[in-house]
């Protein structure tokens, strides 16, 4: 099995959280760093989307930064930007099937809706309240997030408003920029339950936190992770460097192991004098990388996942027996090279076609739109909120560095020439049960193969 292959299946670098649309059957976390198999379409730097009409890109820029120079001046939000969305391409298509999880994530509030009192309860851990009224965005900040998570999350939502001007309804929401879910399912059971609606980057099957794409889609300045559109090009170029048949037949992982116990356990799977688990495990020292200019941290040279299916898009690894599980996975791939390659290609195709930046914005749009339908109160601008726009709190106030560069590169410069895709209907209960059952059966099949492999190997010793 080739190096990049298992890197895709097992995944894991400090730059990538191991929860891309998953929740085991329902995991959830949207991130910007994926695996390195894809053959990606290059997306013009500084222009965010392949679905904007070519003539518009050549002849106009509807959105320009209108910065006021000088420290004595306060930036103001322009009033002459487009406020309505008038696409000329009226062809529509259905969103990828994983968009159905939006309905599942919002199901706890489907019957009763969301009251202002519920929203107040979500303030306990929130970093900010986001308000959209008449197409304008306002933020009431409660506390600072780690690094620039809050800044780039707000930046991403601003780009959504620029992509589809005037299309989002009025809304209010609370956002927590930490990773760990904090709304436990078991505390909000029964007909009288009123869970707080809290947006964050990750959730799991035991939690009710509402999952939203994470900040690094627009760049992670502190670790030199570029905006996702730029990374697509790097991945494409990286895959050209080594042909599939010439890649190292090992599983590969590089990241910071000290952020979670499950990562620390992975260090035991590295090659030693006594054991060769067919894995290469590297510790990523971000301080050292920063001092060296991040020259060894390019994702294009280096990924479960609600929409991805085991044995179709990736190879599952046991969490409680990583080393033996990894060794078997590599052995299986080396003995079934065509099947292994087809799984890797299917995973890459899924990412290329269903998880591109266009669908990130479409997912954001439909999540916020469906959420707004549940509000039982009229959104209003809080007294302590300030209007947010690129000029006022973002790019105009940033002097140089990755932060400014990533904002410039990820900025939406023209509205989309098409409407958002059409969100598919919710899962029927039986269909959802069958889908989750297929995934569980695929994992069980791999575990059976793995057990048989080790039983046979132990008998031969």
Evaluate the radius of gyration.
Answer: 23 Å
Chain-averaged pLDDT:
79
Low-confidence stretches: 1-60, 292-304
Number of helical regions? 14
For the biggest sheet, the summary is:
6 strands, mixed
Shape: globular
**Percent of residues in helices:** 25-40%
Question: Strands of the largest sheet, in order across it?
Answer: 7-5-4-2-3-10
Domain Glycosyl transferase CAP10: 167-378
InterPro entries: CAP10, O-Glucosyltr/Glycosyltrsf_90
Protein name: Glycosyltransferase family 90 protein
Pfam families: Glyco_transf_90
Describe the structure.
This is Glycosyltransferase family 90 protein. Pfam families: Glyco_transf_90. This protein is an alpha/beta fold. It has a domain at 54-222 and 355-429. It is 35% helix and 8% strand. The protein is built from 14 helices and ten strands. It has helices at 3-10, 54-59, 101-106, 116-121, 149-163, 228-241, 261-266, 286-291, 322-335, 337-354, 357-373, 390-393, 401-410, 429-459, and strands at residues 28-29, 128-133, 136-141, 171-175, 198-200, 202-203, 210-211, 251-255, 279-283, 386-388. The protein has a six-stranded mixed sheet with strand order 7-5-4-2-3-10. A two-stranded antiparallel ribbon has the order 1-6. Helix 9 (322-335) packs across helix 10 and helix 9 crosses helix 14. It is globular, with a radius of gyration of 23 Å. The model is unreliable at 1-60 and 292-304 (pLDDT under 50).
């Amino acid at each position: 099995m080739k190096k990049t292959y298992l890197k895709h299946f097992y995944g894991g670098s400090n730059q990538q959280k191991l929860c891309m649309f998953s929740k085991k059957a329902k995991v959830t976390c949207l991130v910007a760093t994926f695996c390195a198999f894809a053959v990606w379409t290059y997306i013009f730097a500084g222009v965010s989307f392949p679905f904007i009409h070519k003539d518009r890109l050549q002849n106009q820029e509807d959105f320009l930064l209108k910065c006021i120079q000088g420290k004595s001046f306060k930036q103001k939000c322009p009033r002459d930007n487009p406020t309505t969305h008038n696409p000329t391409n009226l062809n529509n298509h259905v969103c990828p099937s994983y968009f159905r999880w939006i309905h599942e994530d919002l199901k706890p509030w489907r019957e009763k809706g969301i009251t202002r009192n519920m929203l107040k309860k979500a303030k306990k851990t929130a970093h900010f309240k986001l308000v959209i009224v008449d197409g304008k965005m306002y933020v009431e900040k409660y506390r600072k997030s780690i690094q620039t998570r809050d800044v780039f999350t707000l930046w991403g939502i601003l780009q959504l408003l620029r992509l589809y001007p005037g299309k989002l309804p009025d809304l209010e929401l609370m956002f927590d920029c930490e990773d760990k879910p904090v709304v436990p399912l078991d505390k909000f059971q029964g007909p009288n339950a009123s869970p707080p609606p809290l947006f964050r980057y990750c959730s799991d099957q035991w939690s009710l936190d509402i999952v939203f794409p994470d900040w690094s889609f627009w760049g992670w300045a502190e670790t030199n992770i570029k905006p996702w559109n730029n990374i697509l090009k790097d991945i494409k170029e990286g895959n050209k460097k080594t042909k599939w048949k010439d890649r190292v037949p090992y599983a590969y992982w590089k990241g910071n192991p000290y952020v979670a116990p499950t990562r620390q356990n992975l260090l035991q799977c590295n090659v030693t004098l006594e054991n060769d688990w067919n894995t290469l495990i590297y510790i990523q020292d971000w301080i050292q990388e920063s001092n060296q200019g991040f020259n060894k941290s390019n994702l294009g040279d280096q990924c479960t996942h609600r929409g991805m299916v085991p044995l179709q898009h990736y190879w599952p690894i046991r969490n409680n027996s990583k080393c033996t599980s990894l060794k078997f996975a590599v052995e299986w791939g080396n003995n079934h090279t065509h099947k292994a390659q087809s799984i890797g290609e299917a995973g890459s195709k899924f990412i290329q076609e269903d998880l591109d930046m266009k669908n990130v914005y479409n997912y954001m749009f439909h999540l916020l739109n469906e959420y707004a339908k549940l509000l039982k109160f009229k959104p209003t601008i809080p007294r302590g909120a300030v209007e947010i726009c690129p000029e006022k709190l973002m790019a105009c106030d940033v002097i140089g560095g990755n932060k400014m560069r990533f904002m410039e590169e990820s900025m939406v410069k023209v509205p989309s020439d098409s409407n958002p895709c059409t969100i598919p209907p919710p899962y029927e209960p039986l269909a959802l049960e069958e889908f989750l059952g297929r995934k569980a059966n695929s994992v069980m099949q791999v575990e059976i193969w793995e057990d048989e492999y080790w039983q046979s190997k132990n008998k031969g010793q």
